[in-house]
Amino acid sequence: LLFLWSITVSIFGIGGLLGSSGSRYLTVKYGKKKCLLCNNLLMIVAASIMGCSKIAQSFEMILIGRFMCGISAGLCVPLHHQYVGEISPRKLRGFANSTSSFFWSLGKVVGQISGQRELLGSQSLWPMLMASCGLPALVQLVTLPFFPESPPYLLMHKGDQEGCKKAIRQLWGEGHHQAEIDDIMKEKATMKNTKILSVLELMKEPAFRWQLYMIVILTATVQLCGINAV
Fold it and tell me: Are residues 110 and 117 in contact, defined by beta-carbon separation less than 8 angstroms?
């Protein structure tokens, strides 16, 4: 029993690893907006499976749901940061990216508070707690279609300059945005001469060794700094 519940907890991380590994391929092929929309559907399905596990008397449904949640979270983190940063005007880009981390931590706090026995962590209400992760996904699924695709994606990967201008006007209002479009074109020209490394190539590259060590140490120790309590 301990082994089964340990797998149920840890399989979220395994799903997250798979989801984040495939995020780059999916975003280049389908675009960030479409990936986020499909990702919301995946999270809603996962939430439904976990929410119905008690009625079905199946712990396997919790296991499957947790794995799907992990894949969805692994896809969502890089996708959301990139999309929010790319649709934000330059002067608000840093602020917009920082809000992603803020709401990520806030969501964890809300989950931990909701999981108390006095709230949704009771014997009768825990299926609702498991299914609650589908609520933010549902909100985004309903609202995201009103937003355009990322302007850099339209210009850099699709070559759609008119679509890029239309998306910029929709996001930032009417005005002269040629400077932003020129910046995207410069980035596109730079990317042509830049080799994209795979995860394995990155780990083998000596030039990035110390940066990689720093990221691994920071990520591993962030759980010890009390961020959830804060």
Answer: no
Distance of CA 215 to CAs 19, 95, 162, 207, 218, Å?
19, 22, 39, 14, 5
> Which DSSP string corresponds to 189-213?
HHHHTSPPPPHHHHHH-GGGHHHHH
Of 38, 33, 44, which Cα lies nearest the Cα of 80? 33
Owner of token pair 């299926």: 127
What is the Cα–Cα distance from 143 to 156, expressed in whole angstroms? 25
Distances in whole angstroms, Cα of residue 147 to Cα of each of 23, 34, 154: 20, 11, 14
pLDDT tens string 15-64:
999 998 888 888 888 888 888 999 999 999 999 999 998 999 888 899 99
Residues 181, 163 contacting (CB under 8 angstroms)? no
Residue in 186, 176, 189 with CA at minimum distance from that of residue 89? 176
User: Considering the entire predicted model, what is its pTM?
Assistant: 0.79
Residues 19 and 102: their CA atoms lie apart, in Å, by 22
User: What does the block give as tokens for 25?
Assistant: 């391929």
CATH class of 1-147: mainly alpha
Indicate the domain borders of the chain.
1-147, 195-229
**Which residues lie closer than 8 Å to 191 by C-beta, 6 or more apart?**
156
